[in-house]
Amino acid sequence: MIKRFFHSLPLYIKFHLFLAAFGMLSLTIYRFVFYLMYSYRIQTADIFTVSKAFLYGIRFDISVISIFIGMSLLYSCIHFLNVKKSFLVVWRIVPVFLLIILILLLGADLVYYENGNKHLGYEAFAYLGFEMLPLVGS
To answer: Which of 105, 97, 104, 99 is nearest to 123 (CA)?
Structure first.
């Protein structure tokens, strides 16, 4: 029954469901890797507190994935915008590009947290502009 329901969905909804599942999987893997790398910093926390934090993290991950691919799903559901092939390409490339950027930022956050003692925040966006060129050149 679930298989029949999934096959009856339009292609753009299947595509966005796949992206949402991939994003949730990558964020879950990141959470576990982060916990394994930095569990020595929270030695006083019991298993109940850590489990509760993981459940709150799942709720946060759903909101992040909704922000990253929600607008693309909304625009791909508007049928008169999908008449031209160029719009179809945009609705399919933009969320994939955003998920790739998300995964790269998560990897950079794993390294940055050890050195900066905080998560990667505005620094990722402040130094990705033209101001970073003199730093790279030196």
So the answer is: 105
For residue 117, what is the DSSP state? Answer: S
Q: What is the CA radius of gyration of the chain?
A: 19
Q: Rounded to 5 degrees, what are φ and ψ at 23?
A: -65, -45
> Amino acid identity, residue 45?
A
The pLDDT assigned to 127 comes to: 64
Is the separation of the CB atoms in 99 and 70 below 8 Å? no
Predicted model pTM: 0.79
Q: Report how far residue 106's alpha carbon sits from residue 126's, in angstroms, rounded to the nearest whole number.
A: 17
Which DSSP helix (H) or strand (E) runs through 11?
helix 11-38
